[in-house]
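RETRY 2/3 - previous attempt timed out on the joint model. Re-submitting the same 675-residue input unchanged.
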Amino acid sequence: MAYDKDSQSIVDYIQNFARKHSLFVLAYGTGCGAIEIPPTMTSRYDAERFGIRGAATPRQADVLLITGYLATKSLKRVIRTYEQMQNPKYVIAFGSCTINGGMYWDSYNTINMLDKYIPVDVYINGCMPRPEAVISGFVKLQGEIQAGRAEGWKRYQDNLDEYRANQKKIIKNWTMPDYNW
Amino acid sequence: MEDIGYKIFGAILTTILAFAVGMLYGGLSRKIIARIQNRVGPPVYQNFLDVFKLLSKKSAINHGIMQHFAPLWMIAMSISTLMFIPVLKDGLFFTNLNFSGDIVFLLYIMVFGSLGMALGAGQTGNPNSAIGVSRGLTQMVGFEIPWIMALVALMIQYKTTSLTGLLDIQSESGTWMMFSSPFAFIAAILAMPGMFRYSPFDIVGAPAELASGPISEFGGKYLSLMMTSGSIFAFVKLTLYVDIFLGGASNLIELVIKTFILYLFPVLWGAVSPRFRTEQAVKYFWGWPLFFGVLALLYASF
Amino acid sequence: MTDILNTENKLLEVLNEEFKLLSGKVKRKCRVEITIENEQIIPVLLFAKERLEYIHFSHMSCVDWIEDGKLEVIYILWSPKEKINLLIKTKVNRDNGNLPNIDFIWRQANTYEREIREMFGLPFDGLVGNQDFILEDWEEIPPMRRDFITDEYVSETYFERPGREDAKDVREQILGRTDEDLPDFAKKYSRD
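RETRY 2/3 succeeded.
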């Protein structure tokens, strides 16, 4: 096809347009920042006008929101949830605890850098970010999807061994199925 | 020969029309509910974007052949049901296949779609799906009874079991069935939100209930097929109501207007009401709607 | 001043009569502290609950005295009638210490005892409940003990993000401020 828009084929352009305008967010609050999700989704700071709606199970969801710190107990469950989602999938990380450990940087139970365990696409800083900041994070994710740069799931598939090594260093009792999709 | 050609072409056109109108009504209902809740909702074409996005997922995870087969069964049943409903009263393309035992046949075939979903949900082995399926079937026992009573009352009153027969009676006598057998109309209208699975009867598929019930293990392409079949089935039910009670439609614009007015009833009621539990829903259906159904039967016999 | 602390002193007298206390003190209004031996825990708590009507079990916590080689457990009771907090302290050996289980007196003590068992390593005999309460697959020594060096463990197990290149040390700027630099509304609330 001779049509090229920003060096992307027309099929990719249409697919990314559809993907960015209808994001299904998994209703799973992993940390203390989950209290900012209901105001974002309801009437005052309406997120549904961007096409964002809640999904009940990981099989139906596109976006996983990591809202805050992750203890090692919840990291195991989050990894299992992330691997059950279908490609292409995105991860948005809220708050300073995912960036560099935040308020709990010297705790024996919480992880410091989230990017070493799960690939992250967009970080939103704050402690916790307000709904306006959350919506601007979603808009940035939309920009990344349209440009074709939100490829965290491909990074996870290619570098699976590194991610697994990092995860197994912390999670000692490894009882999860193999990642084969 | 050209008759068959027209019928096949009409079938394809009807399917495309049902898909487009059903999706548009879904988006419109989201917009209306959003405006009722004092916010700007998604654009009207949002359901199309949802379906395209779900079709562009790169992996299809399934647990076996029956789960793979279930959405295909559902959409096949929706389209088959669509083929037996005369979309327009007369015209070249849109009167589909119909024969003299129509109404009884439709009553049976409308239930097949959920059977496919139940089988597919059973294969996944998720306990949420099993409970959701049992709830859905229990609710179906609820709303089917006033609906069947209304239709049986009509069949007794007018001594015909074919949809085109009912359409002809309405166009001959000039009044709609809504006015000439009012109790049947009221019973059928009160049973309508149960068919559409909107609030307050959306306990089967709502995301907060049991992780969305039977569809909890379907994602990606299967979910897109289910959404499509849901929209086509909504159009089927609306057109059926228009044909039986509101006198059919002779051109597309009239059809769209009549179905939209009828569609506003479950949407507006659903926007302001909470959710019923299964036993409360069945108790509601076996209350006033059943009463009006019995009245309709009595009215039809005398 | 002492007649304001009437009920507290009376309480201390009653307890001194009944049991042999290692020490007893009225710390301030509404707070009385006593120290007892291990074997007297259950009699003292039952007496306080049934006879003196200290029916509310507020809290139970633990302090690590590594210099003496002992762990100190503190029970806090509250009486809604006289509105006094009663603190009951005991000390046990750090290595092989054991305390009785007071689960049958107040059921909520179960949660506090499980937390102390996991975080300090102090077993309560007869305690029923999962071993894994808060931490999962923990293989080191109990983390609240003072010989568990958190900094070393954290720098070994978790990653540390390098700082920004334009990071500035603003401590001098903040600590060097005097009162004249503060704006007017902050002077009203400044600490002095």
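Chain B has a mean pLDDT of 84. Closing ticket.
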